[in-house]
Amino acid sequence: MDDSFVGDLQYTMRKIILSILGVLLIIASIFGARKIIDTKKRAKPRIAKIVKTVFVDTVKNKTIPIRITANGNLTAKRRLEVYAEVQGIFKEGAKLFRTGQKYKRGHALIRIDASEYYASVQSAKSNLYNLVTSIMPDLRLDYPEIYEKWQEYLNTFDMRKATPKLPEITSEKEKYFITGRNIYTTYYNVKNLEQRLAKYTISAPFDGVLTEALVTEGTLIRQGQKLGEYIDTSTYEMQVAIGKEYGDLLREGESVELSTLNKTKTFTGTVSRINGSVDQATQTITTFIEVVAPTLKEGMYLEANLDAKKEENAIEIDRNLLQERNKIFVVKDSVLDVIDVKPIYFSDKKVVLKGVPDETVILSKNVLGAYAGMLIRVYQDKKQHSNVTSDTVDSTTKKQ
Length: 400
What we know:
By secondary structure, this protein is an alpha+beta fold. It contains five helices and 23 strands. The protein has a six-stranded antiparallel beta barrel with strand order 3-12-15-14-13-16. The two termini are 73 Å apart.
């Protein structure tokens, strides 16, 4: 037999054998895979049932005072901006004109050198005295019935004191005679000079303290110049802006609780004035609160709580517990539900509600992801709060 023929036959047989082995291997793999799939057991998952622990309160309707919160700075109720009406040198007084200096009522704040002007006043008073003296001989002869009262006027005339008031005119003849001698004109000129002379001394109109001093002793003061500011430290006022919707709730004379921002000090004030118009820009009503306390200072920033009214059969909760502005969560048989409520008043952190029946169990703290129908567990023992997590895994499992 030819060697080439034998070689071809062997090659062909080898291919046939390899093909058969490949088919057998594939079939074995398929059967093996099916066997493995059929014999593999799945581990069925244990599905945990999550129940959140919540904090609740039981509703008891009562009378809730509606308190309007506002804030502002204190200002002295009585204050005086000191201006000069005359010109001269600022004379040194008993007390230095300095910020923080206290004065009693009637004490001189500022004395301006008036020696030159005082001399002109004295000259005018002397002219009046001489003029009245010159008519006395005529009064003795022609009007003896009025001579005595004019003589008494001269006796009481003191150049060192204010000019006394002229005697009262009792007849037409006396009136014409005195007017004709130019006595009235001279008298009122003197009184005008005396009034201006009094402006060289500025006195304290009330007990208080100097809060601003713009001049010092020896300064040349000019007419119309501002000299400083003076306030009464016994009574202060705080101006606050209240929303117009609460305007009809405010009353003059009502007590107001005032406190510092850190709540370390509290004071009691009174609503002293309420503006009769609404600010068109802010739609608020300006209200003034009067407060008296020795520790207060002008410029202090205080917070006021005004008792506007009392709402009966209502509750007060945190604002974050209100849902969609008119609903709250309630607990019914360990399931959350929602009910409609009627908000009455909103503050920064609280809201006053009506329409919640007594003994209703409501959430006292907000729950993340809460919804109607959610299963919950009510927190019971507050002493163990630190050992209780917000999400509790129920021990029961369900096989599928």
